[in-house]
Amino acid sequence: MDIQESYDIKLELIKTFTKLIESNFSYDHLLDLIIENAMLLSGGQGAGFLVIDKTTNKVHFKTAVGKGSKKVKQAVLNQNEGIVGWIINNKKSVFVADVKKDTRWSEDVSKQVDQEVKSLAGVPIFLEDEVYGVLEVIFSTSPKSEEKAVEILEAFSAQVSKVIENFVNYDNIKTHYDVLKKRVREKNKIIGRSSSIKKNVSDCIKAAKSNATVLITGESGTGKELIARMIHEESSRKDKVFYAINCGAIPETMLERELFGHEKGSFTGADSQKIGLFEAADKSTLFLDEIGEMPKLMQVKLLRVIQEKTFTRLGSIKEQKCDVRIVAATNKVLKDEIEKGNFREDLYYRLNVIPINIAPLRDRVSDIPPLVEHFIEKYRKELNLMELKITDEAMNLLMGHEWQGNIRELENTVERAVVMRNGMEITEDDLPISGAKKGIGATVQVGLTLKDAQDQFKKELFIKTIEFAGGNKTKAAKILDIERTYLSKMCSQYGIA
């Protein structure tokens, strides 16, 4: 083969693969096109791509084109069998001018493919320096140029290897992504059987079908972010990343940068451009937690984003468009905050298009048993305690407790009981609320007003929990899932030393 002919072949290959790679075909379709072009350029009458099954040491046709290709695809070879087996074991290209005169030719293989084969050219396909398969072209008559046929296949083999590597990497990443997503869904699963939680789930599914803003209300620890994630997962945006930010945990100047981003040099320390959450969450969902804590100036800017679907990076005058589904949440009563002048009324109505209120755990006692079982199962797996159970008495105690910290407090209580238990059963004595609860029966008197009874219960609970924590208020506050400052305030209010 002369230099010009070799150059023409390579040029044709570059054109062919450029078209294929830019075509966005599926893996199987792309392989079909590759071997079809390999066959046409080399002048063959059929072509196939064979892959090795590492578990069985068998070789089978991933795809085939040409006469009788349907039957060819059904053929299965041993890894050491025939000319293909030789290519795999020797990791070398080969051209056989007359297959019937070649000692490596297998009659069994010939019968399986049921094709009239005169000549055969084959090259190994590598993946990470290991033979992944074989690309072969068959000829019913001898080709005009054996050298040309092998050169074409070797050029194709390099491209096939890249295609396979890309798809294998993609499949690995996708599999890993799917596993992680499944774990996240399991972790964020909404559990409960009460009518109120069922209504919340039903409302989520309905809300997910639209792009309307959602305002989730409820006490701390009720699971507002889980509801927001469910809306995202049930929506058409589920394949995009779910973004969340706590508006009350970030200073105002930083909050603006986090939401809208900034330009290089827009402030001291801005060494590079940074995109904000509204830009990152384009075509996705942005969860604004503790929206009631958002400063007034930021409320104005958020209102503009909702109305105009545009925002401006800090330090820029250029408007950026965005398509972001906003889900907000608060444990405050925003109408009260409006009256106090802390929250904009126009923003409230923009956010409150679809309101979802999550009832506190004490108002949906029937949700406690499935939640407790879920948390126990979680820690069973973590600590390899598959025989761990909870007694009926302990479950009843949990159901009778007034969960001021809601689900978060319940999970903390269960986790502590699992870790600190004395056997393979969680009993009343393993629960940090047990002492307080047992003492109530002896101290609460009939005839008290509801407020007085609640005050007496809280006082008893605080005393018993502080005793349980060895007098350490910080530990007691963690058990109760409240701020230490609030516990100190309550101790002062109830005269607890």
What layout of secondary structure does this protein have?
Layout (H helix, E strand, L loop, with lengths): L2 H19 L5 H16 L3 E8 L4 E9 L2 H4 L3 E3 L3 H9 L3 E3 L10 H7 L5 E9 L2 E10 L6 H42 L7 H14 L5 E4 L6 H10 L8 E5 L5 H9 E2 L11 E2 L1 H4 L4 E5 L6 H13 L1 E3 L6 E3 L3 E6 L3 H6 L5 H7 L2 E4 L10 H16 L5 E2 L1 H9 L5 H15 L4 E2 L7 H10 L6 H19 L4 H8 L3 H11 L3
Parallel strand pairs: 7-14, 7-15, 8-11, 11-14, 16-17
Antiparallel strand pairs: 1-2, 1-6, 2-3, 4-5, 5-6, 9-10, 12-13
Give a quick summary of the entry.
The protein has 20 helices and 17 strands. It has 497 residues and is of the alpha/beta class. A hairpin with a 6-residue loop joins strand 12 and strand 13.
3D structure, described in words:
It contains 20 helices and 17 strands. The protein has 497 residues and is of the alpha/beta class. The chain folds into 4 domains: 170 residues, 2-Layer Sandwich (Beta-Lactamase), CATH 3.30.450; 159 residues, Rossmann fold; 64 residues, Helicase, Ruva Protein, domain 3 (Orthogonal Bundle), CATH 1.10.8; 66 residues, Arc Repressor Mutant, subunit A (Orthogonal Bundle). It has a 6-stranded antiparallel β-sheet with strand order 3-2-1-6-5-4, with helices on both faces. The protein has a 5-stranded parallel β-sheet with strand order 8-11-14-7-15. Strands 9-10 form a two-stranded antiparallel sheet. α17 packs across α18. It is elongated and about 105 Å long. The relative contact order is 0.07. About 2% of the residues have low confidence.
